[in-house]
Design a protein that fits this description.
Elements lengths: L3 H11 L12 E4 L8 E5 L4 H9 L4 E4 L16 H11 L3 E4 L2 H5 L4 H8 L3 E8 L5 E9 L2 H12 L13 E9 L16 E13 L3 H11 L6 E6 L8 E13 H11 L7 E4 L5 E11 L4 H6 L4 E5 L3 H10 L9 E5 L1 H5 L1 H14 L4 E4 L15
Parallel strand pairs: 2-3, 2-15, 3-4, 12-13, 13-14
Antiparallel strand pairs: 1-4, 5-10, 6-8, 6-9, 7-8, 10-12, 11-14
Length: 382
């Protein structure tokens, strides 16, 4: 039996909640973690249509990209639109889970799915998120049973955790030397006598925010009155996490053809696909950002890409972007603007693969093909 708790753990591992913006609301919205999950339904939006679809399919869990309860609420009465949706899910025995800005910044995440949909080979993030700040603690411990005691204490305090591994360390043998003076209470040796002891140098990485706890654990578990240790701040490393992605096409093509490519790779919407730039400009290197992406216009320009694909571009930022690339200035990327929902819909298949892989195929996973983009009519004057 696969439980809701197990499915949530798999989704949290793929889209870590720590990556979510501080204003966001992600994770399990409703549902009993101990309930069995036999079918999961995945959609961009938690709206009446996708809730109906999930319940009609017999889903035990609806996974969406957009949150239902983004801002603080004081109640979820069934006499409100959002409260009514929650009551329908609960009465139907289905949970609701959201992965929003954490899925935007994960690797792979929303923009990786968008890049794949239009045929890009991803190089890395458009706006990289800083990797978690790390320290390294180096301690010198008498070789013997005390080494195991110290190692366990450091591990329990948060050191030595790398990915899916714990108790990670490196140890080298050596000789420690010290001369206890009056007032010292040496564990080994005597006051006034130079002592040499077989010791082991142990090295472990740790999250910087665990520094105080790890040092305290070392001091509490070490047999010496004055343990010798170092704490080093490690350099920031490149990260694949962050908003947007930069990728390349196998072959350069004109902007007009690239716009057709984007339209063919994404579901149709009333909004359609529109581009700003010279139709004959050749496009090879591309930045993408699923969802509203005009905040990353400067990042796309700085990346030196030929085109930037995103959603919800506003008139003035787009106009200023185009203007900034005219005259003697280096050309700025052409802009390709798509519907918000369409830019994020490819993520649904990615999330479905996460659930399938984690459950070994024991859970049936469906992806909604309902167009929940709010715009329903598109017209051009004739």
């Amino acid at each position: 039996m696969t439980t809701l708790r197990e499915v949530v753990a798999a989704l949290d591992a793929a889209y870590p909640p720590r990556l979510a913006a501080d204003w966001d609301a992600v994770g399990l919205v409703c549902g009993d973690p101990d309930d069995e999950v036999r079918r999961v339904h995945i959609a961009v939006d938690p709206v009446a249509e996708t809730v109906d679809e999930a319940l009609a399919a017999g889903a035990d869990l609806l996974v969406t990209h957009h949150p239902l309860l983004l801002r603080g609420v004081h109640g979820v009465g069934a006499d409100t639109p959002k409260g009514a949706l929650l009551h329908r899910l609960i009465r139907g025995g289905a949970g609701l889970f959201t992965a929003h800005t954490n899925a935007d910044s994960a690797s792979p995440g929303v923009s990786d799915a968008l890049a794949a949909a239009i045929g890009l080979t991803v190089e890395g993030p458009l706006q990289a998120a800083p990797a978690p700040a790390l320290d390294k603690i180096i301690a010198f411990v008498p070789t013997g049973p005390e080494l195991t005691t110290v190692h366990e204490a450091l591990s329990d305090a948060g050191a030595g955790h790398i990915g899916d591994y714990s108790h990670c360390s490196f140890a080298t043998a050596g000789t420690g030397q010290f001369l206890p003076h009056e007032g010292a209470r040496p564990t080994i040796g005597a006051v006034g006598k130079l002592e040499r002891v077989a010791e082991t140098r142990i090295e472990m990485v740790l999250p910087r925010h665990r520094r105080a706890a790890v040092v305290a654990a070392l001091l509490a578990s070490h047999p010496y009155e004055e343990p010798a240790y170092d704490v080093l701040e490690l350099a920031e490393l490149p990260s694949q996490l962050g908003l947007g992605r930069i990728g390349t096409l196998d072959t350069a093509e004109p902007l007009s053809a690239f716009t057709d490519r984007v339209a063919a790779g994404l579901p149709a919407t009333a909004w359609g696909v529109r581009a700003a730039g010279d139709p004959d400009r050749m496009v090879r290197r591309v930045a993408v950002c699923g969802g509203a992406g005009d905040s990353a216009l400067d990042a796309a320009a700085a990346a030196g890409v030929d085109a930037y694909v995103t959603a919800d571009l506003r008139h003035h930022p787009a106009s200023e972007h185009v203007l900034a690339g005219t005259g003697p200035r280096p050309p700025r990327p052409a802009l390709v603007d798509v519907a918000h929902w369409a830019s994020e819909w490819p993520w649904c298949a990615q999330a479905a693969d996460v659930v399938r892989a984690a459950t070994g195929g024991s859970v049936d996973v469906g992806v909604s093909r309902l167009r929940t983009d709010p715009w329903t009519i598109g017209r051009n004057p004739t």
